[in-house]
Every structure is written in C-alpha cells, then in structure tokens.
Amino acid sequence: MNDLTRQSERLIEEGRILRDDNRAGGRHRREGSIGEGSASLKLKHWKKKLIQLAIGTLGVFAAVSIAAAILNGIGFWGVIITGLVLVLLYSGVLSQKIKVPKRSDINKGDVRQMVSRTELWLEHQRPALPPPAVKVVEDMGVQLDALGKQLETVDQNHPAAREVRKLVGEHLPEMIDSYQRIPDHLRREARGGKTPDEQITASLGKISKEIDSVTRQLADGALDELAVKDRFLEYRYGDGETAPIIDRPEGTD
Predict the structure, then answer these.
(1) Could you tell me what percentage of the chain is helix, strand and coil, using 3-state DSSP and rounding each to the nearest 5?
(2) What is the pTM of this model?
(3) SS3 for 241?
(4) Residue 155 main-chain phi, psi, to 5 deg
(5) What are the structural domain ranges in the chain?
C-alpha cells in the first residue's frame, strides 16, 4: 500500500509540474515539451489519469465496503485481493502513455488544435533529426505557441487559416518525413553540394522564419496580405540554394 501511495503522490506531483510549466510559458521545454500547446495536451493526459485513478480507487473501496457489510468483514485474503486489484489499477493507469498524433491525423480539427498536435508530433521526431535541426524544432515551439494564439481570432474558413494549415499541418511534417525516409548512412553524404542533414536544418529554418512572418502579419491584422502558399512554393522550387523537401537517393528503398 505504501508503494501505491508513493505512485499516487508522484503522479500528482508530475501533474503539478506540467501545470506550472504550462502556466510559466514552458520553462522546462527542453526537458520535454517544446511549447505550451504540446504541454497542454500532456497536462490533459495526466488529468485524465488522475480522474481514472480516483474513480477506480473509489470503485474498489466501494466494492470492498459492500462486501465487508454483507460478509461481516473481508478477512486476510480479502485485504490481499484488494491490494492486488489496486496494484493492477495503478499499474494499468500509470503505464498509459500519451498518444502521439499520427502523421495523417495532424491536420484534423480546428487550426489551433492542429498547431498543438504538430508541436506534440515534432517533439517525438527529435531523436531522428541531426542536432542543429533539433535546435530549430525546439525554438519553433515558441513560434507555434504564438501562432496558435493569433489563430484564436481567425475564422476557420478564412484563406489565412487554410494556408497556415497547409504550412504547419502538411508541408512541415512532410519535410521531416522526407528526411526520415533517407537511410541513416546516406544522410551525411553531400548531394548537390549539401548533405541531407544540412538540407533539413536549413529547410526547417526557412519554415521557422515563415511561421514567424505569418504570426506577425496576423498580429497586425493583415489577413489579406498573407501569401503563405506563394512564399512556400518559392522556398520549395525557387532560388535553388536549399531544397526544403528532400528527395530520396536513387536506388534506395
């Protein structure tokens, strides 16, 4: 029972840390969350766990109380069984991990929820990215937070919202997916003067600048001046300096 108490206390404390981190603007971002959006999703997940534990614990003790009243006590084996049930309950709930959005699910729901899901998805792509690209992704969390706040006042059907959805919900994850499909041993081989590692870092940097530009225009109320699609197409097919969408090397699976 002491173990169960410690587990419960740890769960509550971690929930408080996530809550405080979310309120403080994500000071512990580098330890996990890259932004407030993903931290908020994690906090909801921990709250769900706490509710499940509370309901489950009350249910167990209610059942034990009824059994004790009917049987005039539950005896030694009743206590053992109750303890085992609680252990199973806590183990099952605590083992539940937050569901990372699938690539195909990122661009669903309203546009602000899409931004939060993109943050959570990006966090889990960091192990597969080169260190310089990881730094860009972590800094991008702050930008996505700011973009999400600006999108609160934008109609979901406005062209600006649709273009942001394409930029953040489609092109950004597509870029990372393209990089991850390249075999690891080829990611440091130069193609066209740059390695895939250098390409993904530079490309993410351009997307980061675009997110910042869009956020500033939204803050200025310049919805009709947004030209995300045109600028992104220029990045993708334009100056030739960097290719944001990385093609797979020929002959690879």
Answers:
(1) 70, 0, 25
(2) 0.62
(3) coil
(4) -65, 140
(5) 2-94, 103-237
